[in-house]
User: What shape does this take?
Amino acid sequence: MDRVDELEERVAHLMRAVEDLSDVVARQAGEIAGLERRVRLLMERAAAEEASGGGSVEANVRPPHW
Assistant: This one.
């Protein structure tokens, strides 16, 4: 195999790797967006519970073994 064929083969492999990584990044971006939504909802729920005076006082007390 001559030098040009080797380079073309390497470029093809690198292009495939870039496409695979791009797919992974796109999937992870979607997962991160979903997780950010969930965290935001949990934070809003916790803030609303705190503002309403709800929530258990026991949740803020150290366990007896501390």
Summary: The chain has one helix and no strands.
